[in-house]
Amino acid sequence: MTLLSVPVIAVDGPAGVGKGVVTRWLMTHTGWHRLDSGALYRILALAAHRAGIPLDESQRVAALASALDIRFTGETEADEAILVNGENWTSALREETTGDLASRIATATVVRDALLQRQRDFRTAPGLIADGRDMGTVVFPDAVLKLFLDASAEARAERRHRQLSRKGLDVNLADLFAEVRARDERDRTRTVAPLVAAEDAVTIDTTVMGVQEVLQVVAALLKARNLKF
Length: 229
Ligand code: CDP
Prior knowledge:
Layout: E1 8-12, H1 19-30, E2 33-36, H2 37-50, H3 58-64, E3 70-73, E4 81-84, E5 87-88, H4 90-94, H5 96-105, H6 109-120, E6 128-132, H7 135-139, E7 145-150, H8 153-166, H9 173-189, E8 202-205, H10 211-224
Parallel strand pairs: 1-6, 1-7, 2-6, 7-8
Antiparallel strand pairs: 3-4, 4-5
Helix pairs in contact: 2-3, 2-5, 3-6, 5-9, 8-9
Residues 15-16, 37-39, 41-42, 99, 102-103, 106, 132-134, 183, 187 line the site of cytidine-5'-diphosphate.
């Protein structure tokens, strides 16, 4: 099987929209691998921050990427861990402040280029579920199915709040809402690989949908596209 014939499903959308739930459901139903592209941006941003590199010094940030040994372990949300150069960075990576750092470095072309091949390397048989912002537009433009999940900023801040609270993280809803809005603005207006639906993506506005309803829509799309597993 050539590399390009390994199928990809792209799941793009803004912060807190529920890409994780859809991605995990797709993984279970397909048995395919996952690329959590946001985690790569978070890791690089945190590594730069910890190394004292100013985040706007994009060349230096990008240069760090090749030195990072990144391992994703665990199958479920509960037991997943991300090891960076042998250290467990999982909880620091989940922090909303890390998401903010990530969106700052993500505006630079040199940084995005440094992560591009690394993301494409996840494309291994039998297939890949890729979640992020530019999976369908830039990283895997030939994806067999492109989903673009959207929801109001209010709904996403509330979901993120529930998710972080469940994980025992103490966050204030109003702060979270402000952070989600700021990150949206940065992601949508950047000139390189902005957060936008691919022309051939299916957009699902989940503002007033429950998880099961969203998953039913996704299941129907798989069926309609003849993506049977
Ligand atoms: O989980 P959440 O959607 O909040 O964020 P994430 O997917 O972990 O991504 C964190 C940040 O990395 C985003 O706000 C983007 O600025 C950036 N990112 C990106 O630019 N391109 C991607 N493919 C994934 C993330």
